[in-house]
Give the backbone structure.
Amino acid sequence: MLMKVSVIQLPVVIGDRQKNQDTLRTMLEKAMTEKPDTVLLPELWDIGFYPRPLENYTDEGAHSAKELLSELSGKYHVNIVGGSVAAKLGDAVENICCVFDREGNCIADYSKSHLFSPAKEHKAFRAGDKVTVFTLDGVNCGVIICYDLRFPELTRKLALSDIDILFIPAAWPTVRLAHWRLLAQARAVENQFFVAAANGSGAFANGMPLAGHSALIDPWGEILAEADDGSAIITADFDLSVKEKIRSTINVFADRRPDLY
Ligand SMILES: NC(=O)CCC(=O)C(=O)O
């Protein structure tokens, strides 16, 4: 079975939701010429990482993002893993990813569980406390958000739910590009699944440049497609039978020692 996945590496403008939503409309229309099954967006693609004071830029209940992503997934009949947005939920804000199926239904959500303390994200956002697995076109998928990538235990938990594809929306800076690539490939190799990693292009609110370099990676760690640091759309076919072939050669899941760790 094949799943064609596209990543939209959006050039995020800090604090300008309307502009970023307009850019998404344009880029998604362009991405659809490749006929992807699933499209992934970056972390906080509608406001950037992250304008202050955050309360002036939040999306109440993620309604604005949900309305747009539902419309676009239904219109183009494509699954959308909606990056993330700063959703006001009661009296707190969560960095939340909403997932849409081809009919425009929001079928899952995940709130970032590891907040990036060097940027004081933990002061502005509330951390999520659940692990999210969902199914797109019959394929088991999971999602983590940016800094979550540094915590392999979370990803391993998703792998143990037998996911085939891990989606990673991110806002990752150029100064740590080497970590971004290395960790994304490592998660693919150690868990023997596909990874779709979407970074933004542009800059953080403090002016630090974003690395771009969104990537589509197979379970052998091979990079099937990779962007540079500018605005970009990348696409690759994930041949999901590869996962089983690799697991029948090196079966790390059979050889694990959960009795030791
Ligand atoms: N948006 C983030 O979570 C940034 C993470 C990051 O820059 C890092 O882990 O390094």
